[in-house]
């Protein structure tokens, strides 16, 4: 009798399963953020003047700078994945290290922005626009923090020599997650900063 | 072990450059008042950027149909939620 679970021990099948698992998780994430995007759309259509006036209080330049930072961090992740596919663990660690650093820069800019808003008396409870702004960027910020922890763990594993050209599933999976965090920001930036 | 389309560093760099360029374009367009068209342009550019990230950085381009299904189904549900909610709140 052959072991019925044998095919799950096949590395190729295990890799495909892990990938589908991450995409399933990302599906739940789309709907988590989707609820907020829906709230945004409903209220923006109901109160267009409020959104138009309030969104102008956000710093477009800082928002754009942070967009560039996140896009660059996605680029370094894909280069890190590319490096380990070629078996280069040290380069993976350098690229993922750069990503974690860029994520830190992103959060610092976010801190400066939040501080400026609080200084001007703009809080999550100020009005509908700022409720949505803080809720959406806050939830996204938590995802950035989680991503930093995840990528750091992958770097630690890599330093212990766990990854090679033939096995590096956690590297690919954490990369998928990080690109998703970038994807959310790609929509948040124009919706909140550019068109309100 | 197969990874679908592996992509090349040259492709990654081109996508990165395109993403930066589109970011500059969307910011510049936002300073011009086009009325409702501003929203359309901003969302269109965002969607092109999102597609580039999904296709090339997340390697969706070389993936099989099953993975494509897993990636597209949540977008279908998101559209359903948006449409359902809007028909309620707008026609109330």
Structural description of this entry:
The complex is a heterodimer of chains A (196) and B (92). Chain A is mainly alpha-helical. Chain A has one domain (29-194): Four Helix Bundle (Hemerythrin (Met), subunit A), CATH 1.20.120.80. Chain A is built from 6 helices and no strands. Chain A has helices at residues 11-46, 48-55, 60-85, 89-119, 128-159, 169-194. The relative contact order of chain A is 0.16. The model of chain A has no long low-confidence stretch (mean pLDDT 95). With 92 residues, chain B is an all-alpha fold. Chain B has one domain. Chain B has helices spanning 9-30, 37-57, 65-90. The longest helix of chain B has 26 residues, at 65-90. Chain B is flat, with a radius of gyration of 17 Å. At the A-B interface, helix 1, helix 3 and helix 6 of A face helix 1, helix 2 and helix 3 of B.
Report low-confidence residues of chain A grouped into runs of 5 or more: none
Overall number of structural domains of chain A:
1
Strand content of chain B: under 5%
Number of domains of chain B: 1
> Strand count, sense and closure of the main sheet of chain B?
none
Order of H and E elements of chain B: HHH
Structural class designation of chain A: mainly alpha
Distance between the termini of chain A: 63 Å
Largest interface, by Cβ-Cβ below 8 angstroms: which chains and how many residues each? A-B, 50 and 44 residues
CATH topology of chain A: Four Helix Bundle (Hemerythrin (Met), subunit A)
């Amino acid at each position: 009798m052959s072991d019925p679970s044998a095919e799950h021990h096949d590395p190729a099948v295990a890799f495909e399963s892990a990938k589908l698992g991450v995409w399933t998780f990302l599906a739940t994430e789309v709907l988590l953020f989707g609820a907020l995007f829906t709230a945004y759309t409903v209220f923006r259509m109901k109160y267009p003047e409020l959104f138009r006036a309030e969104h102008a209080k956000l710093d477009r330049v800082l928002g754009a700078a942070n967009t560039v930072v996140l896009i660059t961090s996605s680029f370094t992740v894909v280069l890190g994945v590319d490096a380990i596919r070629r078996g280069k663990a040290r380069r993976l660690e350098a690229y993922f290290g750069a990503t974690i650093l860029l994520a830190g820069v992103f959060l610092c800019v976010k801190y400066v922005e939040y501080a400026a808003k609080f200084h001007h008396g703009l809080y999550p409870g100020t009005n509908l626009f700022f409720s949505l702004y803080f809720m959406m960027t806050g939830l996204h910020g938590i995802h950035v923090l989680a991503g930093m922890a995840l990528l750091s763990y992958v770097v630690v594993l890599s330093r212990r020599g766990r990854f090679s050209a033939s096995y590096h599933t956690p590297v690919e999976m954490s990369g998928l997650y990080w690109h998703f965090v970038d994807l959310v920001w790609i929509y948040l930036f124009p919706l909140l900063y550019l068109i309100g | 072990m197969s990874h679908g389309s592996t992509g090349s560093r040259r492709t990654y760099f081109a996508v990165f450059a395109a993403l930066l360029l589109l970011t500059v374009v969307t910011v510049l367009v936002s300073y011009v008042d086009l009325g409702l068209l501003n929203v359309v342009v901003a969302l269109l550019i965002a969607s092109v950027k999102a597609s580039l990230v999904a296709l090339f950085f997340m390697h969706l381009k070389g993936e099989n149909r099953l993975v494509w299904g897993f990636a597209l189904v949540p977008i279908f549900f998101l559209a359903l939620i948006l449409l359902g909610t809007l028909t309620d709140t707008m026609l109330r």
